[in-house]
Amino acid sequence: MGATNTFLLLLLFKTCLSQNLYHLFKQINEETGNFSTIAANLAWESSINPGNPELPARSAVYQKNRLIWQHNTCDKLATLHNRQSLNSTQQRQYYLLCRGPEFTYGETRITSNLYEELQSIYSDAEICIPSDSNTSSNNLTAVEDAILNYLSNVKQFFGYKYGDSNLFAAKIAVNRNIQEKEMLCLKGEVDFEKMMAFSRNEEVLRWLWQVWREKIGPPMKEPYRKLVAIENRAARRNGYSDIGASWRDELEVPMLRQLCRHLYEEVKPLYRLLHGVMRFYLRRFYGNIVPERGAIPAHLLGNLWSQNWEPLVDLLLPQTIDLDESIEKLNWTVLHMVRRAEDFYQSMGLPAMTDKFWRESVFARENSDTRCHGTAADMFQDGDFRLLYCSGTSKEDFYVLHHELGHIQYYMSYEHQPPIFRQANTALHETIGDTIMYGVLTPQHLNRLGLINDSLLYTMNVEQTDTPMIQDNNVIYDNKECRSEKDKDFEKTETKDSKETINDVFEATNDKDYLVMKKLKADYLPFTKLNENIKDEKFDVPPPKIFEDKDISTDSVLLLKTALNKIPQIPFSLLIDEYRWKYFEGSLRRENRDFWAMARELQGIAPPTVRGEEYFDVGAKFHVPDNTPYIRYFLSSFLQHQLFEKLCKAAVFGRRSVDGDVPDTISLTRCDIYGSKAAGKILKDFMSRGHSQHWREILRATLGEDDISAAALNRYYRPLYELLEKFVRAHRVPIGW
């Protein structure tokens, strides 16, 4: 009887404890949801109207209340954790709620002011120069002319007595408050990015690249140092070595640094090929300013940060598929583009955007202070999901809209979860929209949208090539013999030859046209020392075609454009956080020069001018002053291919559980997932778990994989890899830097 009573008392105690813990975590989740709602509203208002004088006081009240509550709650949960009283779900909620840096109230107020200072430096950046007329920043040709005229005037007036006249012109524009009746003003990263993609004038590009970093970097250096010092103290208070260790913990990837380097090495063969071919064509266009071997000048890659080379596709292809032109001809509006993006998700069985989304989202700049960097917001209220993006109607805008709607689909999928689980591993969160975009860019869907016609839709595959040879600087080697085990995903596979090509559509420029264009280019770029001191006659003939006639197809052109857009982002995203991790650790000897040493190692790029320690060039990217970790985008570059391949299999076979590979007769670049409910079920399952499980468990349950791998990415780009190898072999293009 005594033993029975003891057992019953123990059972009663455990039952009561379990019920108490259930109610405790229910209350904690309710309070978490309330704080999340307040935080979301503050974040939204600070983006829409950052000058609102009420925001600092409201933010201070929120931070104080949240800190006191979280400190008390985590102390209570730590005691229960140490007593081993929590079940697995409660353990995970405790971990998610209480990880990360521990700030004091005083520290949160200081960091809030530093965040605002850094954001203002970046978001409010504006450069104005004298102009012959009030030039709109949207008239890119007029903007380029105005910049050239400004540079010419500076050079004429000051000569070279202050050294590099281009750099001096940048310093004048930054440091002098020029008062003229007629001005050209470039505001924010959007205006600079448009010009970096548009211009082919080396002097203009160099000035844009320099003046952005002159404006952003130096004033950011000291507040960023103060911010990191406080964040490091807060991170150490919770057991981390520095804030970088806290950031890495958020991803729940053991040995994250080693994994990232391994993934980089896996994709490096493809990146090196793309880099070598791009350097080859840039040298043909700009001359000796681009070295035959070594790093590419960073300002010539069509992007403010050298992370997206797609704007340079016209240097590689005589004619290309211009989706921007197609969008313009169709007179698409921003609203039309949002509806088309929504339609893709809906076609897979995912929900439509909510009424509050359409009522509260912002698709255009409401005032001059609005911070328009693309942002998807979960307001933690029923059906309240919003998008802030001052969108245009370009292909890049179309991508951003799909990307941000991917975040919102994620929010809607895990809305049913307890508030602590209403989040997800950030690498997974960044994966959804980009995965969908591979489906959007298939010829079938582009034709469905009216962006390409039937003649482009029905041109198919390219013919495979023999094993080529690659030149690595001064070394010629047989690529098959020297290929490492990591390159096995690029081994040759036979595909069916296509009798159809699009030579009629992509007609190569002949020699006469090329020489005329070259003369016009030289006349139009009077301040560029184009091809100076070049005596090799090969620069006076058209550059060779990147694809042979039999290899030109809609698929190869679209794949090249995608690769130019996506592949350079991989080393760039690794650079941004590898550098910051070292910054947080205090292991950098020369902060800015070390940044460029790492950029050369990972990206194979070099600055166009000497960059001393007075600069803070890493701050030229939004996510640095925004204090947002960037390695999530690196990991997402691989995860999105793993997910897309799984969705492709479901779309092809009509069911989610498929063993084996996609049939050889179906190219991944033509895998049309639009309308596939089977693929949509995988996506819904992937997202609906939120943060309730470790990311490995989610991958295992939904994709049948338990690690992040480069294999799917390499399979996707294998046809392009082989075409680039063929080109490199035929023209003995140097590879490496």
Quick structural overview:
This protein is mainly alpha-helical and 737 residues long. The protein contains 28 helices and nine strands. Among the domains are: 12-98; 122-220, no CATH class; 256-325 and 465-565 and 718-735, no CATH class.
How would you describe the overall organization of this protein?
This protein is mainly alpha-helical and 737 residues long. Among the domains are: 12-98; 122-220, no CATH class; 256-325 and 465-565 and 718-735, no CATH class. Helix content is 57%, strand content 4%. It is built from 28 helices and nine strands. The strands form four sheets. The chain has a three-stranded mixed beta sheet with strand order 7-6-9. A two-stranded antiparallel ribbon has the order 1-2. Strand 6 (469-472) and strand 7 (475-478) form a beta hairpin. Helix 8 crosses helix 9 (243-251) and helix 26 runs antiparallel to helix 27. The longest helix is centred in the N-terminal third of the chain and has 47 residues, at 2-48. Mean pLDDT is 86; it is low at 461-538.
What features would you highlight for this structure?
single chain; 737 residues; mainly alpha; three-stranded mixed beta sheet; two-stranded antiparallel ribbon; 28 helices; 9 strands
Task: Please describe the topology of this protein.
Layout: H1 2-48, H2 55-82, H3 88-98, H4 105-123, E1 126-130, H5 140-158, H6 165-175, E2 183-187, H7 188-198, H8 202-237, H9 243-251, H10 256-286, E3 296-297, H11 313-316, H12 323-329, H13 334-347, H14 355-360, E4 375-378, E5 385-388, H15 395-413, H16 426-429, H17 432-440, H18 443-448, H19 454-457, E6 469-472, E7 475-478, H20 479-482, H21 511-524, H22 554-566, H23 569-585, H24 591-603, E8 605-606, H25 631-653, H26 677-688, H27 695-702, H28 711-731, E9 734-735
